[in-house]
Amino acid sequence: MKRLITGVMASAAWLLLLFLGPFPLFWLVITALAGVALSEYLTIVLPSLSKGARPPFILFGLLPLVGAYSGEATGLLCGLTLALVALLLYTLFRYASFAQPYDIISRGGFGYLYLGLCTAYLVLLMALPQGRAWLLLLTAITAASDTAAFYTGSKFGRHKVCPAISPGKTWEGFAGGLVGSLGAALLVRHFFLPEQGLVWICFIVLLLGCLGAAGDLSESVIKRAFGVKDSGSLLPGHGGLLDRIDSLLLTAPVLYYLLYLQTGLCLP
User: Fold this and answer.
1) Residue 13 CA to chain centroid, in angstroms?
2) 268 domain-assigned
3) Domain range enclosing 132
């Protein structure tokens, strides 16, 4: 029941932000959520990092989102470059205080790519023509896939997808997730993107559905490597924020570039 209530409340808040929130507010909320996810990630991969050293690492990791406020990919990449440079300089400056400086660079740098960069594409998507509709499609695909996969896998799951990483994931659940995401995507297309071709939407659903599952497994690899079950306890019944956005981390950038290939409007 906790899982259901949390999911409904989070979905309602997201829809309100998506359709009623101005761009600056959307950017601010996504940046704040990225900061929370980065904090959860650092807690997992750098548990020995002192509380005093954590805020600079999080602030550096948010620089790609600062750059994404321009609505252009060049701004995002500029922010990412500054983030990596800042991480290196900070590590050099504090070198003597870190037991494993290379762990700081490698694990922190991957976090900037995995969370700072990938979440910034949500901001770039919002800045596109019909950006709100595309974001609705993206979240409908991922949310419906996660929900359908969970219930289908629980009831019919027999064949494991990757038991070494996530024993609970099954091919039956994966197939149910694709069916659920297709149904949700077709509803969004009907009401918000009627000009988009059916084959094109189906292709997007198939690709993003597979990538969403890969994103989920990718986070499981990180948690399993450090012996962690959930990334946090922020969302009752779901775990941490990172546990809920892992599917979006791969799908948002790919959707952005799919739209770039389709229209050529996304990049300067």
Assistant:
1) 17
2) no
3) 2-263
